[in-house]
Design brief:
By secondary structure, this protein is mainly α. The chain has two domains: 11-249, Fido-like domain (Fic-like fold), CATH 1.10.3290.10; 256-321, Arc Repressor Mutant, subunit A (Orthogonal Bundle). Helices cover 57% and strands 6% of the residues. A hairpin with a 2-residue loop joins β1 and β2. 36% of the residues are buried.
Length: 323
């Protein structure tokens, strides 16, 4: 029997796929022709993915590297950026279901950073959070077989590409096939899978949104590992994809209340709901992010209102659509 990654398709995942598909349809009618905006989104993508791994370069500095200008920064950070710029430039030449292309991508991403470039690791690795071990990856001798099975599944899967790309990413992080660079490779390959489904995703900076929710990113991986169900990670990634799809239209004439976070809040708001109930309905883990990106914008632009406006901090506070 061929390998099947463990994941369930929840109602929340189905709803997110429907919303993303609507956005894909909208953007297909108005594709990005602005080369400047495409360049900005590519820089956002690279900055976000590398920042998750501790890279310190800003979007301005990455732009300078791209333009061949001198940048004062740690040499390793500059090398990471140069590698990433080259890798994302060559993405269109790779086949997402070809394992050899994955190894070539790692070779480009990690040149000058690690000795084992373009090859699977030869030793054991673990994922650390401070001094705490969060995950012990499978033994090195099992990696080639695990990766072969994962690629065979990717080639044969009949699931939606939004699901297969997220499941592949989750399984990739569990296997941790390389000695280093697994996070940036997992994010790169999910982007490649999505781009080969629909070219629109070449201009959508998903990694930038993942960086903004970095703690939740790692938590979703941990939950999927602990529960042996990639659904936690799939939902997280679909939420970030939906949020990221507002970036191509991120121009001055756009109204803040029309961004996906507010639209999603309005979609789940039924009658009167508490803050906790709304956050749970949205499947969000970060309270600060929910407040800043969903609740406050919806209130500020008159889309929702408090049931107790005279007592905004009341524990009995609820929210409803205005008008």
């Amino acid at each position: 029997m061929s390998y099947q990654p463990p994941f369930t398709i929840t109602p929340a995942i189905i709803d997110l796929i429907a919303q993303i598909s609507e956005q894909v349809g909208r953007l297909s009618v108005q594709p990005i022709h602005d080369l400047r905006l495409r360049r900005i989104n590519r820089i956002r993508t690279i900055q976000g993915s590398l920042a998750i791994e501790g890279n310190t370069l800003s979007e301005t500095q990455i732009t300078a590297v791209l333009d061949g200008k001198h940048v004062i920064a740690p040499p390793q950070d500059i090398q990471e950026v140069r590698n990433a710029l080259l890798a994302y430039e060559q993405m269109h030449t790779w086949n997402a279901t070809d394992e050899k292309d994955l190894l070539q991508a790692h070779q480009i991403l990690m040149t000058g950073l690690v000795d084992e470039c373009g090859m699977y690791r030869q030793g054991g690795v673990g994922v650390m959070k401070g001094k705490e071990v969060m995950h012990i990856a499978p033994p090195a001798k099992r990696v080639p077989l695990l990766m072969r099975d994962l690629f065979l599944w990717l080639k044969s899967s009949a699931h939606h590409h939004l699901i297969t790309s997220s499941v592949f990413h989750c399984e990739f992080e569990f296997i941790h096939p390389f000695s280093d660079g697994n996070g940036r490779m997992g994010r790169l390959w999910q982007s490649l899978i999505l781009q080969q489904w629909n070219p629109l995703f070449a201009d959508i900076p998903i990694e930038s949104l993942v960086h903004q929710h970095q703690a939740d990113y790692y938590l979703a991986i941990q939950q999927s590992t602990e529960h042996i169900d990639a659904a936690y990670f799939v939902q997280f990634m679909l939420e970030r994809i939906l949020d990221a799809m507002s970036f191509p239209q991120d121009t001055p004439q756009d109204s803040p209340q029309d961004t996906p976070p507010v639209e999603r809040l309005l979609h789940v708001l039924k009658g009167e709901m508490s803050r906790d109930a709304l956050q749970q309905a949205l499947g969000l883990l970060d309270k600060k992010s929910f407040r800043q990106r969903y609740l406050l914008p919806a209130l500020a632009h008159g889309k929702i209102e408090m049931t107790r406006p005279d007592k905004p901090n009341s524990k009995f506070q609820k929210y409803r659509k205005k008008g």
